[in-house]
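Give me structure tokens for this 135-residue protein.
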Amino acid sequence: MAQGRRVERVASLIRREMSVLLRDGIKDERVSQGLVSVTHVEVAGDLQHCKIFVSVFGSDADRDQTLAGLQSAAAYVKGELSRRLQMRRTPEVQFLLDRGIVRGSSVLGLLHQLEGDRSRKGEPGPGSDGPDPLA
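Here you go.
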């Protein structure tokens, strides 16, 4: 059980340091094109590999460019994490795009569109005090 807590603690530390690196450390223009945030960090049990999930606000091209910039900065990030966290072995870093926020935004957009369609048609929305269809 202590191993699991250790891995979680390392993941939390990496997430914190990555947020600082995204703000102040990584100078690649591709990374600064979109609004980037770290959403989740997964560290392997043996601490050899680390997946850093990021969310990028912007177009698909912005997302692709940002991810390419992050991948090219992986060696720099690993070195900085090693220096900042003072670990014996620093995990290999892999950046992955977290599409959860994008999916959530598109679902919210669809819900707003449905609500607009209903109001244009004069239909009551769900949970409203409109006429009871069973009455």
